[in-house]
């Protein structure tokens, strides 16, 4: 007779939670097929070695598992880093910190809102003139490596500055702008391009770069289409197409709050 107690329930819940986080991470990065492949291989390994006690098969699969884990860590080091950051970056921790904050919280909120509106106004103006733009907002995961691919300017967030940088004749308009800590850190940056086959063919390279960035990091990317003038947002490996000014303000407000 099996002895099934509270410890076993906790064990199952922990494994289920871990699988859920890994599944969500793989879905964002467009690697769901790999996730199901690894899951199937793990199930076969457990059944063969632990349940059926198949020594030869179990030994061979043990060797594959030990080598495979090292390969997976190397291939998905960015995703693993993001997974660990996600565990400690939930909204509840932010709310807990807010309970112990003192001082000029209202002034901070006003400054945050002013920065957000500067970006929103710039995006709306560029949308009307069909000026292509790609703006990346850092959240919890540092984007230092991507900042170094462009020109570091470390400037205040300003509507006119954003518009001038993405002006068609500007030498810096062709890359991405990275905003972190309420500062324009770098412009003309190179981002990882997503190879997701489900991206509509009507979306160009800016959209693929934005989606790729949102898959390997927790950043939020705002895209202004040069062809249609539509504003889109890439977040957590998913697109929001034809975003309105009000929706963009709401999304960026959430990003700013979670990035504190």
The string of secondary-structure elements, in order, is HHHHHHEHEHEEHEEEH
Order of strands, widest sheet: 2-4-3-1-5-6-7
Broad structural category: alpha+beta
What is the oligomer described by this structure?
Answer: single chain
- Beta-strand share of residues: 5-15%
Helical content, roughly?
55-70%
Shape: elongated
Quick one: biggest sheet? 7 strands, mixed
Mean pLDDT: 79
* Rg (CA only): 22 Å
End-to-end Cα distance, whole Å, is 53 Å
Helices, by number, come to 10
Stretches where pLDDT is under 50 for at least 5 consecutive residues are: 90-96
Care to count the β-strands?
Answer: 7
Features:
about 260 residues, alpha+beta, seven-stranded mixed beta sheet, 7 strands, about 55% helix
Written account of the structure:
This protein has 260 residues and is α+β, with helices and mostly antiparallel strands. It is built from 10 helices and 7 strands. Strands 2-4-3-1-5-6-7 form a 7-stranded mixed β-sheet, sandwiched between helices. Helix 2 runs antiparallel to helix 3 and helix 6 packs antiparallel against helix 10. The longest helix has 24 residues. 27% of the residues are buried.
Structure described in brief:
It contains ten helices and seven strands. With 260 residues, the chain is α+β, with helices and mostly antiparallel strands.
SSE diagram, text form:
Layout: H1 6-28, H2 32-51, H3 55-75, H4 77-87, H5 91-99, H6 105-128, E1 133-137, H7 144-147, E2 151-156, H8 159-165, E3 176-180, E4 183-189, H9 205-216, E5 220-224, E6 231-235, E7 238-240, H10 245-258
């Amino acid at each position: 007779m099996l002895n099934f107690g509270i410890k076993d329930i906790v064990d199952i819940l922990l494994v289920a939670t871990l699988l859920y986080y890994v599944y969500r991470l793989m879905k964002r990065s467009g690697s769901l097929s790999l996730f199901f492949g690894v899951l199937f291989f793990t199930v076969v390994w457990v059944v063969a070695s632990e349940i059926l006690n198949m020594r030869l098969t179990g030994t061979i699969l043990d060797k594959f598992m030990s080598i495979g884990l090292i390969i997976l860590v190397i291939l998905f080091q960015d995703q693993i880093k993001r997974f660990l950051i996600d565990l400690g970056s939930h909204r509840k921790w932010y709310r807990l910190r807010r309970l112990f904050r003192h001082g000029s919280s209202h002034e901070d909120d006003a400054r945050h809102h002013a920065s957000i509106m500067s970006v929103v106004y710039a995006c709306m103006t560029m949308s009307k003139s069909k000026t292509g733009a790609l703006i990346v907002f850092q959240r919890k995961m540092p984007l230092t490596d991507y900042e170094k691919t462009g020109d570091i300017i470390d400037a205040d967030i300003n509507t006119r500055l954003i518009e001038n940088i993405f002006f068609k004749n500007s030498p810096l308009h062709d890359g991405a702008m990275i905003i972190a800590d309420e500062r324009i850190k770098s412009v003309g940056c190179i981002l990882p391009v997503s190879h997701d086959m489900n991206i509509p063919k009507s979306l160009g390279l800016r959209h693929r770069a934005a989606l790729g960035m949102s898959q390997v990091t927790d950043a939020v990317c705002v895209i202004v289409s040069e062809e249609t003038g539509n504003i889109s947002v890439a977040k957590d490996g998913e697109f929001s197409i034809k975003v309105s000014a009000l929706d963009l303000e709401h999304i960026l407000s959430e990003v700013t709050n979670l990035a504190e």
